[in-house]
Amino acid sequence: xxRYASARKTYGISDRSGFRYRLREMRKEWTxxxxxxxxxEPKHPQLEAPNNISDPQAVRDPRPDQTETxxxxxxxxxxxxxxxxxxxFGQVGEVTLITADEAVTLTGVTAIGQVGSVTATGVESSxxxxxxxxxxxxxxxxxxxxxxxxxxxxxxxxxxxxxYRFDQSDSSNSGHPLRFSTTSNGTHAGGSEYTTGxxxxxxxxxxxxxxxxxxxxxxPTLYYYCTNHSGMGxxxxxx
Length: 239
Hints:
5-stranded mixed β-sheet; 3 domains; Immunoglobulin-like; mainly beta; 6-stranded mixed β-sheet
């Protein structure tokens, strides 16, 4: 069996410099080179492959589950205002609007975007009526006229912020829908129908028929008239 010399006088040649060194003092580098002790260079740490350490991004249970409470907001405005001064907010469960003479609850409001815009479901409204006027139609000097509470073409007063109902359930109202205009005699005198805050129900002359108006702040003097016949109406002051 072959043997290698290893005596103290055995020499080797450096793979790097070519110098002669005692073999027993020489060292082998990580590259496989056999070098002298003064030439030896250890492997730099940056040459080592990094450990494959995963960095998880998700956080488990960052906070405990919470039961969200439904907030109730109260907003104040006037009935029939053409530009309601509502604040803007996000999703809520119920909103109560307190007006001059009524409280309206909006249930299931999904969003209120820009000022005055409301999207809601299940809206329930029960406005209080400041006064109900009984409307009948009678002939006077051969022409039909509106009688308000028994007074021919009676001048009525409508307060801003209040709601008024003109009851047209009497059979004499058949064919005589009552509407409002800022022009005396309405569309028969070149005016247009005034619709701000105005709602209607049923057919004139039948049970439950009426025209209702929630008077807006700053509303002009109005005139009630028949959409089908000229000269039947009168004045509705809005002091």
